[in-house]
User: Fold these one by one.
Assistant:
Number 1:
Amino acid sequence: MRKVLVIGGGAAGMMAAVTAAKNGGQVLLLEKNEKLGKKLFITGKGRCNITNAAEIEEFFSAVVSNPKFLYSSFYSFTNDQVIDFFEKLGVQTKVERGGRVFPASDHSSDVIRALEREMGRLGVKIRLRTEVKELIVEDGTVKGALLSSGKKLYADAVIITTGGVSYPSTGSTGDGYRFARECGHKVTELLPSLVPMEVKEWYAKELMGLSLRNIEILITDGKKKLYREFGEMMFTHYGVTGPVILSASSIVGKRLKGKELTLHIDLKPALAQEQLDRRVLREFETNHNRQFKNAVDGLFPAKLIPVMIELSGIPEEKKVHEITKEERLHFVRLIKDFTMTLTGLRGYKEAIITKGGVSVKEIDPGTMESKLVKGLYFAGEVLDLDAVTGGYNLQIAWSTGYLAGMNVG
């Protein structure tokens, strides 16, 4: 019976442990935290967006870094198989907007408990509060791991599933990158991803806490269009966050290093400019004797009104019937193109995932085994793989963890 060591008790690690044990491996899972799945517990705001219900072919377009590498992983353990796996373990699921799949209970703890029960059933040994100092490698083959306590653990195969460096409070402190480098692996540039962004403008603070639904964003670098998305966003004291912003950060994050980008928000994407102009005209005609500041309640949430009035350049006390056509058209253009200057990403403490990681060029995509060290496998966020929001990143963890677990035997 092959001895398998799994380092890291997150999504990929637990899935790798379950799969390796099902295939007859004698599995020992090491986790430096006091409990398993600490980061999994907080994903999806504590509800755990397990995967997405889209067709598996569509997953590749949701992956930002190295989608082709995931071909074997995604097809070996698809989203449908993930849902089936958890339902068989007693976790009923439901599908929400955008195909996001959640536990029906809305509790991430149910997902973690199901994995723990399955590991227990399969005889996986778990050691918590156990930190690995370094890997033991001899003649190009991994032999086990040296613990911080000085104890050596020997194994026929080692799977590294230590995650990235996002949410460091959950124990993601980049250990896996160090192990990989010490074994001669290249680790690509790391960046926080699926993370809020900072803006320059004064009015971000004024709008703090305001959520906008059914808006469209466009991010540009000069005349170059980088990212366009329809959905929800929210203002914070430092800038912007919310689903469309988080997904955008994974696409534009690298460009934000040392330069500024422009965020264009279309507040009324369902209306063409001419249609919106007619709508504004109707509002103006209904309120033609009122002051401008009291005539736009029907167009925006209350918190946005003073900012839009200020940016419109139309004096707030001006009577609506005195507003010129040029002023009105400028106001309409502002609604269709409300801009902010993006100045940077927030840090790893607020990032859902880490962009970058162990170079996939040095990993066999069909097995997850290192091409440099025999018997050494990698899975999950420690690899240079990331996707937009919507359950895709957890699917990467499940699929790569499964493939590593399948192949250690």
Number 2:
Amino acid sequence: MRVFVIAGEASGDKLGAALMAGLKVLTDVSFDGVGGDLMQAEGLVSRFPMDELSVMGLAEILPKYRALKARVGEMADAVLETKPDVLITIDAPEFSLRVAKRVKAASTIRTVHYVAPTVWAWRAGRAAKMAAHVDHVLALFPFEPPLMRVAGMRCDFVGHPVVTDEIATAAEAQAFRADMGAGPLILALPGSRRGEVTRLAHRFGAALANVPGQVVLPAAPRVEPLVRELTAGWAKQPIIIPAADTARKRAAFRAADVALAASGTVSLELAANGTPMVIAYDMAWLSRVIISRMLLVDTVTLVNLVSETRVVPEFIGKACQPDAISAALQAVLNAPDEQQAAMALTMERLGQGGEAPGLRAARAVMDGLFASKASI
């Protein structure tokens, strides 16, 4: 079996590596395409550095637009020339789906996209547009397949990679707590990008000043100096864990009594560790206006969505105010049980305790490929 696979960022590299490992368990397979260190460790010789595709935001994409457009054509030509059994694109839709579109326009090569677009949240029409050049979608969330199938694509829920993430042991968490001293332990997670850290740091600091306990802040890579700068004036000084100290970060995630976190997949990391949370987020004014008009759901917190509850308090946009956040943090500290149940249900629904997502994804790819050949 010959697989052409493209990933454009670190999260996609992780998904791709697990999928490649799963395929190697199931069949004799060779790989071509683009990926990072993890995918290369599984046997991929990347055609060019994956970092070239790891750009986000209009301001970053515009200066590289011509180079990225050229890479789209280069990758589509490579797929058409090598004629693999399947093209698998992983996330990075602005790049990946353009390659798939060109490939489908000129061939019958099967196309698989790993990570469904968030049509349940906004821009529902994306699924129909994808269906013109994507045969099969691998979904991370159990509520996504019906939305993709309605648009005309095969879609399989394969589980979320968070269920295989390494977490600290109980002993490691206890040792971390002992180092922090008595009283509540509060995790502060203001984001991993400069823009969100800049917007949220002041409000996070003001909110945490009114909640008793020790604040611990694991800094994300690339923003650690900014985090140190912006938290220097907090009334309650956090203990900052350097980005390179992943062991202490894992211990902090499991040891904390509550977390104040920016919106995103971090809510699932917290759920995996059984750490109750409050979600707070804001964005640039224009983005806030546009997204608020397009949003299709009443919550953006993944734990709420997967568990079909609304037990995680969230303060988004204009609601991202320190006093309200402080009150919610205290309420969660006083009564965490409802969130504990929702987090456990979330992890169960995402595949915890079952077959690894990479292997499930590999089975889905092969099943889809065999089914498509049988129908010819």
